Amino acid sequence: MWRAGAVSLALIACFFRASLCAEGLVNEDVKRTLDLSSHLAKITAEIQLANHGASRVNGFTLALEAELAPHLAFIGASVKGEEEEDESLELKETTVHGQSGKFFEAQLPSSLAPGAKLRVKVETVFSHVLKPFPTHITQAERQLVVFQGNHYLYSPYPTRSQTTRVRLASKTVESYTKLGNPTKSDETVEYGPFKDVPPFSQDAMKIHYENNTPFLSISSITRTVEVSHWGNIAVEETIDLRHTGAYLKGPFSRYDYQRQSDSGISSVKSFKTILPASAQDVYYRDEIGNISTSHLQVLDDSVEVEIRPRFPLFGGWKTHYIVGYNLPSYEYLYNLGDQYALKLRLVDHVYDDQVIDQLTVKLILPEGARNIHMDTPYPITRSQDELHYTYLDTFGRPVLVATKNNLVEQHIQDVVVHYTFNKILMLQEPLLVVGAFYILFFTVIIYVRLDFSITKDPAAEVRMKVASITEQVLTLVNKRLGLYRHMDEVVNRYKQTRDTGALNSGRKTLEAEHRTLSNDISALQARLKSEGSDLAEKVGEIQKLDNQLKDLVCRSCQEAERLVAGKVKKDTYIDSDKTLSGKRQELVSRIDSLLDAL
Amino acid sequence: YVSSSNAGGSVSGNGRHSSPAGCGGSGGGLSGGLTQPAGWQSLLSFTILFLAWLAGFSSRLFAVIRFESIIHEFDPWFNYRSTHHLSTNGFYEFLNWFDERAWYPLGRIVGGTVYPGLMVTAGLIHYILNLLHVTVHIRDVCVFLAPVFSGLTAVSTFLLTRELWNQGAGLLAACFIAIVPGYISRSVAGSFDNEGIAIFALQFTYYLWVKSVKTGSVFWTIGCCLSYFYMVSAWGGYVFIINLIPLHVFVLLLMQRFSRRLYIAYSTFYIVGLVLSMQIPFVGFQPIRTSEHMAAAGVFALLQAYAFLQYLKDRLTRQEFQTLFFLGVSLAAGVVFLTLTKPSLPPLLRYAKIHIPIIASVSEHQPTTWVSFFFDLHILVCTFPAGLWFCIKNINDERVFVALYAISAVYFAGVMVRLMLTLTPVVCMLSAIAFSSVFEHYLGDDMKRENPIKQHPFYPVKNSSVYSKLIVTMLMLMLLMMFAVHCTWVTSNAYSSPSVVLASYNHDGSRNILDDFREAYYWLRQNTDEHARVMSWWDYGYQIAGMANRTTLVDNNTWNNSHIALVGKAMSSNESAAYEIMKSLDVDYVLIIFGGVIGYSGDDINKFLWMVRIAEGEHPKDIRESDYFTPQGEFRVDKAGSPTLLNCLMYKMSYYRFGEMQLDFRTPPGFDRTRNAEIGNKDIRLKHLEEAFTSEHWLVRIYRVKKQENRQALDHKLRNIAAKQKYTSKKVLPSRFH
Lengths: 598, 738
Known about the structure:
The structure holds 2 protein chains of 2 kinds.
Chain A: H1 2-22, E1 25-35, E2 41-51, E3 57-64, E4 72-80, E5 86-88, E6 91-94, E7 102-112, E8 117-126, E9 131-132, E10 136-137, E11 144-150, E12 159-167, E13 173-176, E14 183-185, E15 188-197, E16 204-210, E17 216-228, E18 232-243, E19 247-248, H2 254-259, E20 271-276, E21 280-286, E22 289-290, E23 294-298, E24 302-307, E25 318-328, E26 333-336, E27 339-345, E28 355-364, E29 370-375, E30 381-382, E31 386-388, E32 397-408, E33 414-420, H3 428-449, H4 458-497, H5 500-530, H6 535-565, H7 570-597
Parallel strand pairs in A: 1-12, 10-19, 17-28
Antiparallel strand pairs in A: 1-2, 2-8, 3-7, 4-5, 4-8, 6-7, 9-11, 11-16, 12-15, 13-16, 14-15, 17-18, 18-25, 20-24, 21-22, 21-25, 23-24, 26-27, 27-33, 28-32, 29-33, 30-32, 31-32
Chain B: H1 2-16, H2 18-26, H3 37-59, H4 62-66, H5 75-89, H6 91-95, E1 98-99, E2 108-109, H7 110-113, H8 117-131, H9 138-164, H10 167-179, H11 181-184, H12 194-215, H13 218-234, H14 238-254, H15 260-277, H16 286-289, H17 294-315, H18 319-344, H19 357-360, H20 370-377, H21 380-393, H22 397-415, H23 420-455, H24 466-493, E3 502-505, E4 511-514, H25 516-527, E5 533-535, H26 541-548, E6 551-552, H27 561-572, H28 575-584, E7 589-593, H29 604-618, H30 643-646, H31 649-655, E8 671-672, E9 677-678, E10 689-694, E11 700-705, H32 721-727
Parallel strand pairs in B: 5-6, 5-7
Antiparallel strand pairs in B: 1-2, 3-4, 7-11, 8-9, 10-11
Helix pairs in contact in B: 1-3, 1-24, 2-10, 2-23, 3-9, 3-10, 5-8, 5-26, 8-9, 9-10, 9-12, 9-23, 10-23, 12-13, 12-15, 13-15, 14-17, 14-18, 14-22, 15-17, 17-18, 21-23, 22-23, 23-24, 25-26, 27-28, 27-29
């Protein structure tokens, strides 16, 4: 019992509210413009509202016919001020008891006093209301469409006077309703003026005319925005496009299409997509690769892509493609400490007068973004957030998913996403790479340095030991040979400077270093012997030869001393030096051959 | 920019290996200031291998840079499509995949009729990368798989050559194989085909085989078997391995080089390899049934017998009897081997049976010309006999192998252009050996002498022949440089066209891309019914399935000759006869390639005689090749052409409305640029077909097969039986029957 009471109470309240708005308001003068020149129906009404009631009015109601309401893509109302600036009004959907259709309540910025007047501009855009008739045409035929609407302004208020002006796409009009003897000139039909029209009055208007504008519509678009804090925002749009005009009947002849300019006049060859001015690395492709029939033009304030589908789109044909580009993040991403705000278009331009049947927006934020909050310019359905994994991700990037149906150009507006992001997390990815390389190199080091064989091969071990010892012997012997060469230089210098001190110190160092080196070599020789290698004998031989060599070096040193002291003549010195160096050469080559054999 | 950078890379790769060749020669000599020459040597070879990999990878990228990352040609499209299926549906789903989009109405059991190695490799890489969150598209994995594997081929060629000769030759061989056109022709980026990975598997299997013969270790043999298993899963050319290895064993036995190592290696390899190879569904029981595998079994038995005799020989004393017995057995076995191999050598050449037109129609099955040897191998083809001679001069077990490899590969390559691929690696290895020996001789000694000179400045320099050495070295380096330049040029000009996208160049050098194939395929994909059946010549089957995603009647897996002949018959019959065939095959669309507008020579009219021949093979009563020639025996499309040709379906579809088209003012309307003739039948009307789509440059034309019209409603009056029976005589027929 109480329940029914509540329902009736609600109804009363509703009626009360509606009637409250309606009370006393009158449409003094209405100028309607129906723009049917594209594939959209854009209906603009300039209304002069007057308050004939006794009380002030805070808002008013806008109404749409039941036939058109499901196709509504956009509605906006603004108050025309005395100055140029229009003030747009906030609209809220509402219902009116006993009337079919769709209703919006507009809230006025300042209430309207009794007797006062107000100019309001109402803009509505309807998609898919122009029906091709005939529905199938051949390539040579032109496209005719039918629009069915209302001669009057559908309004909850009585209208004193109104005119309706219809703009068409071409001069060719098959038929149009003749209410009130309309005048037709070129591409326009003008109805009215109609006087004193009661509220909610409807009268069917029907116009059948030629419209060859491309009836393109986007049956679905997925816009993916990936934000990287490294300075890049990647945008990718996956688009399903369809020609929703009259279907192509019969063959498609390329010959006619190429040779006759009016063949396939309603088909779509190409269109322009306008991207933001900072867009870079634009790509245009589909499942089977790059679409090579496109051009890119960089303008001052935008980047224009001439999108040419792989094939011309005739009625009923569809295509599918992907357009993507990169944006620098500094133009779209703002931050204050850890607080970030991303501001960019929720949906962007695809072609002029675009219609989007279904939009999905995916905003991929950086890994670790928290407290995400999304401010949309108009209501949009949010789906469950997702996680997205890409390069070097560990716990996934949050993805905001939102969908909306039936969008037009007026919906190209900015969305703002607020989130917090700890800047330390920026280091995570480089550290991950560093760590991975560290582990890789470490494993290689471990693998190379340690022996993982399950069996021991003593022979191989001995071989390796011997090899390492001979390696050392080689370096030591070479070093020792180097000492002699150094000594030669010392002797030569002595011959020029006659500095006995330098010679003696040189000789001393030679002696000392030679002794240590020889000792080292003999120690290695002993080790070789203990390993049982026959190389030990060869090393011994080298040692013997080396002793002789050292003697020769000492002798040449003494000879030089004697020359300097004047005990020998220069000629004899040169002779003896020659024989000495000859012997040394022989010894060195013998040592070399031994070393080679090692 | 690209070409020059690649050439630079290749040249530097080539230039560098002269030093390790020298190093290898003097390896372990005086070490100067280096503390650990072995360390430097491995670093150097690592660097050279890495550079070879890089040079090989980047010289395969011409097509990607000029066009895009796209799958090339025909077969790769099928491989890509199945890899895509594998990566989206999983491995088991792939093995059980019944593809109803191919061979309508028969379908194809893909899992059981492919070598899955390629798809599994690409799918696995894709899976691992995605597991690591490296979000690469499967297409990019497929496109870049062959270039990456070419690097692996270079590494395995290095390993094999090192086993055969030395490290220096190995590095040279790696550099050769990285850039040699004979191999690049099958492994450019986008050429996603079995051969791309199979050559790696082939070389690696051979390396492991040589290693196992050398060591006699079961470990290496098992490795060899696994590698062989991979090869079997990847390419039908595995038959080459399973015949070459037994041949090697057999020849070693004949050369009295039997050893325990050989016994262990071959016995293990045969058993394990056999079992593993039978795991591939497409191979199944073939290894124990078909003749091409029998040589392996025969040699296995022979080896057992031989080993048994050896065992007996140790126990028994009757030496003469033994030798006699051995001779008898080996002769018998030899006869058995030869009779078995004789039919088994051609397995690779099974395609080459000329009398099947469908095989003969494929250009890559033609015999190789001399020019293409030089074109694909350049200087290597001249130097590799020298390498072979070096090997035979210093023979040992593994060099016997490489000699046999070389001889058999040369034979196969001479039979069929396609098998140039198996010749390339061995040519690279042997040439590397030749070059390496020359360098060792002319550079190695010098370097040895140079070191002491530096160390002992008071030594007299006695290098009388230094100039001749210099000249020889310069000459060799020059040859290598020219080789690198040739390789890059060939790769860039001959092997880097995706063939799906065509490009033409204007007079000012700017480029026009002719994307007609994809235009038409994408139109099919978007604007026809999902289950529409497309009839085309078999060449385009895989592309239609891959790019247009529509059902095809015949495709490049030419397993069903009569089906192909039926399509050929439809193409070569007149329209109404063709309509009957198309109706019986449920054809919705017919796709043809027509090059007359732009002068594309690979179009269907030029292939048309093959269609006629294949159709004639199956339907000799309906189609006769001679009908399509003029009385003078010419194949002409102009007025003098035979009427059968001028009225057949293919002709009509190709030239429909072309007669009205005037391409330029010097030629009459309907002038075919490919065949340079004015077409003979300009007034073409189609009754059962209508033009559905023609691409921008008329390269692809698609026709819709009209559904049968409703029967004409008969114009008749209602019969008034009672009235007529009364007044008409039974002798006279009612007038409406006249």
